[in-house]
Amino acid sequence: MANVLTGVARRTLFERAGASPATAGRRPRAVLPRARRNAGAWAFLIGAVLCFSFFSWYPIVREIIMSFQKPVYGGGYAWAGWVNYTRIFRDPTFWQAWRNTLEFTVLALVIGYAVPFVVAIVLNELRHARGFLRVLVYLPVMLPPASALLLFAYFYNPQYGLFNDILHTLHLPTSQWVFQPGTGFISTAMVSVVIASTWMNMGSATLIYLAALQNIPGELYEAAELEGAGILRRIRHVTIPQTRLILMLLLMLQVVATMQMFIESFVLTNGGGGVGDNTQSVVMLIYQYAFAMSGASNYNSASALGVVLMLVLAVFSGGFLWATRERG
Amino acid sequence: MASVFTATRSNRASKSARAARRPASSTRTLISDVSLNRRSGKIIYRTVLTLVIVVFTLVFLGPLYFLFTDGLKSTQEVIATPPTLYPHHVYPSSYVQSWNRLDVGLMLWNSVYYAFGALAFQLVFDVAAAYSLSKLRPALGNVVLFLMLATLMIPATVLVVPQYVTIANLPLLHWNLIGSPEAIWLPSVANAFNIFLLKRFFDSIPTDYIDAASVDGASPLMILWKIVLPISRPIIGVVSIFSLVAVWKDFLWPLLVEYGYTPTRETLNVGIWQAAIGTPQNLLIAASAMAAVPTILFFLIFQRNIMAGLTAGGIRG
Predict the structure, then answer these.
(1) Which chain A residues are Cβ-neighbours of B67 within 8 angstroms?
(2) Rounded to two decimals, what is the model's pTM?
(3) What ipTM does the predicted assembly reach?
(4) Which of A218, A310, A328, B308 is the most buried (most CB within 10 A)?
(5) To which CATH superfamily is domain B103-316 assigned?
């Protein structure tokens, strides 16, 4: 109401002063207040919209455009067709990086997906020290990743690292850990990266599962127990179905996150990608294409690789959402 | 933000329930209290509890123990084989050396400056935008909201190259923000997750309050300041904590835009990585430990909020 009144007052003022009689005078009465209200609302919105435009929407479009361009000698870009794509497909490191990234994703699922769920189930059963244990699990998540990874790099050190010392004490063969050569599907190097990554990141998944477990109605367990279901069957028929939604969601998010693995391998191998690139990931390759090949830095090849990764992740998450919706 | 409420409420509820339910439990879990109170149950429970506490302490606190004590060793001792379990000769001076040599103080200040600056930008712009989208509902607001939320589907690391090229030469304005704090602050505003959380919370505020205030002649800004913000404290706390931690932990982006200046503009996270080659191991570990202290303190102070917020905001992964 107030808006309408001031709008009218403003309009008569405008008319009297003759400031904008042509535009303001002929429109129906409701338009001006609405325009004013819209302008006010957009004033609140504009800062975020500008930031999104510059740093999110425009880069998305630009990545696709850049992937079809090539730099011209003396500055500027020209259309290049599919050249960047054929170039990266011919690069053996490209396939190596994808293979490694998939290896990391699978290993991180085997280790990093099951462990937090089991830990959450165990924590949920404990009647003591729960706060303490939750803090412990989440503590590594809060460390700066470089701190945690440099510490692991020290533990993994083949000469003076703690892990080799433990193996030595147990009379087991020692290992080069991250710098162990070899590119088998379960390579020691990648397992080392996954262990560090899981240690760093499992806290948040654990706490999310824990919250989901606390929402399971106790009657379901009661009923299952009366029917004679043992602990494992109760987990299978009550716990898992009841937390299915969050399990599925975290599965998808974890795959998307692990496919973007960068810092773990980057810090553990000093930016190198391991022996014979056996821990090189796709995002590391984007970084190397764009910034690390001195002289030969090529934003366009890096963009093409970025587009490929974006498509793979989009197809995966779209397909995953579609498949889980079908069943549920 | 319904789930923050439910999270905190259920925390409180479970606490009071725990106090009240000593004799008979109403909220049971996988294993009932009855079977735990049997003698065999008690023995198994005690064993499992001890085992879990020991294993967790070793796995999660063990590395932290070495993080803080290895920095106290001398350069020779830290690379001795076999490694020593505790510093045989304590050298607190390696922390001092590390602080001076790597300029930890400056990097610490940089991290704090970037993190709180980004927080300020996010709070101003994202809160305003979410308020506008939720309560003022401008024309095309839904399109904007859809476009913002659509960016959630695009993982951030995929866009580093075009983002870098854009920030080196902003379109239309032709500013080069590389090396300036704005290179971290402004992109942090484009955070669809913040918009999503804030808007969902604002949507739950009854319109009656806002209508009443606007009849009384309050401007939208006044309504935001006097009505919406005071109600929204919990969600703003969640958003703030996660945005601070995100900037503090970010690596790839600050590596690209704040790398290699004298005096240094690097964050702690990038700076200690950069020092990894050519710095003695004990100084490096000492620097890592010092880099970890602020976040550990932050976590211990705000752990309740962080853990409650995780169920609301932690889906970010």
Answers:
(1) 147, 151
(2) 0.84
(3) 0.84
(4) B308
(5) MetI-like (1.10.3720.10)
